[in-house]
Batch of 2 targets.
Target 1
Amino acid sequence: MKREDIVICRCEDITLGEIRECIERGATTLEEIKRELRCGMGPCQGTTCMPLIRRELARYLCMPVEEIDLPTKRPPLIVSKFESILEGKESEE
């Protein structure tokens, strides 16, 4: 297996090659990479992949890992039951 084929974000099935391509196209923050590739938006919310992507971005930008800001977490504004969504009801507060 080539290094480029290693899956970094298992939730969204994003490879190291895809992350490197995104950085080569101009992404300079984790937030930009997250928006383009959906890394960190799966069930684990980036617990597994964000440290790996952060390290890769720091290496590319020749910066210490600590200087790479983590993306903002955005929990849902209101909780909706899946049943309500299927029935087309408004959220219950």
Note: The helical segments are 16-24, 30-37, 49-61, 82-87.
Target 2
Amino acid sequence: MRKVILSKTAARKLSNLLDYLTSEFSETIAQSFVKKLDAKFDLIKRNPEAFPKSKFKREFQKCVVTKQTSVFYGFDEKHIYVYTIFDTRQDPKKL
């Protein structure tokens, strides 16, 4: 099975998001998000082509984790490369 590799940008955005969820809501909400993200990563690892190509960056696949958060990734035979974790409320040009 493929290994998930987070870019520095994706790791930073994930850390910031978890800090935000914990401080503004609760540790439980942050843990719930992590479970959803892990479940999506499992789906991506099994079938990376299951999710559509991004409309904004055609070289990326897009996986919606929650209505506010999407993961943009690419893949090869051995790896899933997570390029960014994106807040969908932002301007897509920032992607």
Note: The two ends are 28 Å apart (CA to CA).
